[in-house]
Write a structure and sequence with these properties.
Shape: elongated
Largest sheet: 13 strands, mixed
Number of strands: 23
Radius of gyration: 37 Å
Helix content: 40-55%
């Protein structure tokens, strides 16, 4: 027949698509026969109209039959699946157990990765918020710092119309004593922020006025948790907190507890005006001095932040470029998108400990690999068990079952198993979530209804596990020939056996890789716990000096503590050996002016080296017998000595500390200490200089006491009574 006289394609497709397979060919054949007969007698138009009427009339019945028999077959598939699970208990249990363990691990990793990737996204303007961070380059090294000058944020806002607003944060020290009436605690999350805080960030102020809460000096905003901690059920607004025994802060606002997925998580936010910062009147000096402030800006929609970053650097270097070139240094300012800070920023003195995007990718890869291993285990066991189901397949095919129906049946079985797996895995994840939160330091929970990403992830796991685990066994089983299966002459075939060998080999390889990775991590943890740091950390008790009055009489405190028979020695310092150490520019006297070295600094007293067991390899430590030690002497570590090329004779050499653009303080080297780790073990030991005092420090802040191993509890109680 001519193509133009063939039945309507769409109508034919409707009948073909919705007819049951065993009715399809007879129905189409009968309709086609009648169609061509009408064509011959009455013409093609009438025949086409007739064909469409038949298709539309039969459509409801076709749909009804299709749904009915689909439900019947679905029930049948469920029965068969249930019987197979019951009749092959060991096989089913091993399959479900393997998939459940893999899926449980996947759920934990999914929640972990989701949390890591969600940092700071709860701020409504997060896409337009950036942190400005400086980088300094000298001949020796590149220094990536987080703090900026207190004047740079306001200058950027004034200079560039793209900057809608700016916020500065400051953090002094690590702990502050806070008191309200008879309630006193030592707090470590007290920071200061500009009054524009709520114009940039979306911290939820539930009590107070966001426009004025941080407007006046000596005002503070607290979290709900802190409000309950200090004030109970009282309204905290208007009440005063005593900070460090001598400063009154009036509570002007209460914010909801800051989400754990924020890289800024203070408990107290004091008004920035409380710091009473003063400009020196010299722009260059202001831009390069006191760089301890975290500066954030809010850009207008549509601003290309990379292009803006170039203009910001031009502005910055127009002011300070020549001065830095004069001392052999360079500097730049970088814009960090708010939502990328937690995972990509690893600069010095971050507000909070940050994560690592590579770790997130690694965990995601491990999660997928574990799930894949569970699926491959299912595939291997299903194909190994295929001979047991060969006769079932043969009988079904002998009575008319099509390959497609068998394929759907086996995919359905794997999907049912994946659903059972998800239910069991979700239960296990819920059961072990507290343990996972403890080891991960997170506050995760399983709430499918309020977490659409988790719900989508679980649905995706069902689909992936059901299809990935079932597709190969379904292809293999549905492809059996009924004659061979019923005669018992079925052979596995070399190609299928080879494929199973590949799967098993991959399973073993991936498992070995995971085991090796676990052992490597264990060795890393053992290394961290047992690594010699270069100083004694055992039997050392530390406590912080609370205020300036205590700092001024620390010698009296030390002498009183040493009267206890269990206390071996005591020392005062600005930080612990592994602590928060600031770096600064220094110049070796006698070297060219552009020879600038960045040195980390610790301020320590005369007994520091004996108390912590830090070895002095050349020269001597600080001594009261040399009065100038307190003002003009310093010790360096071996790394500093080597970088300066002073191995032969470092004693008596002098190093100048930059205390401003045009001002320096000279220190004479009286000793060299053996290198010790004063930063994370991820970093190489860097140049360090130890002072008895510096122009930047008003005194020591920590007292460390070395005690005898006997009766430690009694010694601790004694220290508590003295320090209460």
């Amino acid at each position: 027949m001519n193509k133009n006289t063939s039945p309507p394609r769409i109508a034919e497709w409707i009948i073909r698509r919705f007819s049951l397979h065993y009715h399809r060919l007879p129905a189409l054949g009968d309709l086609e026969e009648y169609y061509y007969e009408i064509c011959r007698e009455s013409g093609i138009k009438k025949a086409r109209r007739w064909y469409w009427r038949q298709a539309l009339r039969s459509f409801p019945k076709l749909i009804n039959n299709l749904l009915y028999w689909s439900i019947v077959m679905f029930k049948n598939y469920l029965k068969i699946t249930y019987r197979n699970l019951i009749n092959h208990k060991l096989y089913s249990s091993l399959n479900i157990a393997g998939l459940t363990v893999g899926t449980t691990c996947c759920i934990f990793i999914l929640l972990y990765v989701q949390d890591e990737m969600s940092y700071d996204k709860f701020h409504t303007k997060s896409d337009n918020i950036y942190r400005i961070v400086p980088t300094f380059i000298t001949q020796e090294r590149t220094l990536f710092v987080t703090g900026n000058s207190p004047v740079f944020g306001p200058m950027a806002k004034e200079e560039f119309p793209e900057v809608i607003n700016q916020v500065r944060f400051s953090r002094y020290g690590t702990r502050r004593v806070v008191k309200y009436e008879n309630t006193t605690f030592s707090e470590d999350k007290f920071i200061w922020a500009d009054s524009t805080l709520f114009n940039v960030f979306s911290f939820d102020l539930i009590n107070g006025d966001p426009e004025t809460a941080l407007g006046a000096p000596n005002t503070v905003i607290i979290t709900e948790e802190i409000a309950e901690k200090y004030f109970g059920n009282e309204n905290p607004i208007g009440k005063s907190l005593t900070v460090h025994f001598d400063t009154q802060y009036r509570v002007t606002g209460v914010i909801k507890n800051i989400p754990s997925n924020s890289h800024i998580r203070p408990d107290f936010i004091g008004s920035f005006s409380s710091l009473e910062l003063q400009s020196s009147g010299n722009v260059v000096n202001d831009l390069l001095s006191n760089m301890n402030y975290y500066t954030y800006i809010l850009l207008r929609d549509g601003t290309d932040y990379k292009e803006f970053e170039l203009r910001l650097n031009t502005f910055f270097n127009n002011h300070v470029g020549k001065v830095l070139e004069g001392i052999g240094a360079k500097a730049s300012q970088e814009l960090q998108p708010l939502t990328s800070i937690y995972l990509t920023s690893n600069r010095e003195d971050e507000l909070e400990s940050n994560g690592d995007v590579n770790t997130v990718y690694l965990f995601a890869g491990i999660g997928f690999l574990i799930l894949l291993l569970g699926c491959l285990n299912y595939v291997n066991m299903a194909t190994a068990n295929s001979m047991n189901r060969a006769k079932e397949v043969g009988l079904r095919k002998a009575v008319g079952a099509h390959k497609t129906q068998l394929f759907k049946q086996f995919i359905g079985e794997s999907t049912v198993i994946s659903i059972i797996t998800i239910i069991l895995a979700t239960f296990l994840a819920f059961l072990f979530m507290p343990f996972f939160n403890t080891i991960s330091g997170k506050e995760l929970n399983i709430d499918i209804f309020s977490n659409p990403i988790l719900a989508a992830g679980l649905a995706g796991i069902i689909a992936v596990v059901g299809i990935l685990s079932g597709i190969y066994p379904a292809v293999v089983l549905s492809g059996f020939r009924p004659v061979e299966t019923l005669r018992g002459t079925l052979s596995g075939g070399s190609k299928k056996s080879a494929f199973r060998v590949v799967l098993v080999s991959f399973q073993f390889t991936a498992s070995i890789v995971l085991i090796i990775g676990t052992l490597v991590i264990k060795n890393q943890l053992d290394y961290l716990q047992n690594k010699k740091l270069g100083y004694d950390k055992e039997q050392i008790i530390t406590f912080r000096m609370r205020n300036q009055a205590t700092r001024q009489k620390f010698e009296t405190i030390k002498n009183e503590l040493l009267t206890h028979p269990n206390i071996i020695s005591a020392t005062a310092s600005s930080s612990l050996p592994l602590g928060n150490n600031q770096s600064g520019a220094h110049h070796p006297v006698g070297e060219p002016e552009d020879n600038i070295i960045l040195l980390y600094g610790q301020t320590v007293d005369n007994d520091y080296f004996d108390t912590f067991g830090i070895e002095i390899v050349k020269g001597r430590g600080f001594s009261k017998d040399h009065p100038t030690d307190f003002t003009d002497a310093a010790l360096i570590n071996e790394t500093t000595m080597k970088e300066l090329g002073w191995e032969s004779d470092p004693l008596g050499r002098q190093i100048e500390m930059y205390t401003g653009i045009d001002s320096r303080k000279t220190f004479t080297i009286i000793g060299v200490v053996r290198d010790y780790h004063f930063e994370s073990l991820q970093n190489e030991i860097r140049p360090l200089m130890l002072y008895n005092s510096t122009p930047f420090r008003s005194g020591y802040s920590i007292i460390s006491v070395k005690v005898k191993p006997d009766n430690i509890q009694d010694t601790v109680e004694y220290l508590k009574t003295k320090w209460a």
